[in-house]
Amino acid sequence: TMKNPVPQAASLLLEKLMLLVHIRPLPAGSGGDTPPPAPDYYDTSCFKRGDVLEVPRTLFIHFGIYLGENRVAHLMPDILPSITGDRRQIQQVVTNKRLILGVIARTASVRVDTVEDFAYGGSILVNHMDRLFEDQVLGSEEAARRAEKLVGATAYSLLWNNCEHFVTYCRYGAPVSFQTDKFCETVKMIIRDQRSVLASVLVGLASIVCLGVAPSTTLPTIFIPFFLWMAG
User: Which residue intervals define the domain LRAT in the entry (predicted)?
Assistant: First the structure.
């Protein structure tokens, strides 16, 4: 019997739609990634080893664990760990091309970067998630040690192993992703609401673009099973 391809297709769609959480904006007329801020751009004196650092992006949030001495461990999609063992190449700042290929190949790495390279000019929130876990917060040293043990190549999945799963495991003992859950629920609500016809069509069109469906494929063939799975 053939496996149902709809859940896998929907998972891939979600991964590509949420890629915006990591992609860095390019300046007008630029052919490469924007340079990171100067080393003294952030005041790291208020950060403690084991803290969870959050950087709000346009649509989502990027997470990391502060290790001390201006170092942050964070999980990022990256194609290089799957094709080379050269640490010098891997440790270079991840470009958008490397990131996108990493998402497609479902490969990533838990890497250690400076605060500047991690935040890339964004504002930083510290331990903002602690209020959601109450008495589940582990000791700061335990959180940092967990992060350090996971440094290196790893599999990537938006639904099961993204940057938020990484930090919640390290600091709270359980890998969860609230923003992924919220995004999935929002998509389900759009599809279930019959008044949101335009939004449902846009989601379906996004699935065609992201999944690379051939133009000859009819819309009902893609929309119906995808919508039924998401609404279930």
Answer: 52-179
> How many other C-beta atoms lie within 10 A of the C-beta of residue 203?
19
Residues 6+ apart with CB under 8 A from 125: 53, 54, 55, 56
- Scanning the chain, the segments in alpha helix (DSSP H) are 6-17, 87-91, 96-105, 115-119, 130-133, 140-149, 163-172, 178-192, 197-211, 219-231
Residues labelled catalytic: 163
Q: Contact, 42 vs 124, CB < 8 A?
A: yes
> Global pTM?
0.70
User: Which class in CATH covers the domain with range 51-176?
Assistant: alpha beta
Return the bridge partners of 52, or none.
65
173: which 2 tokens?
A: 């003992």
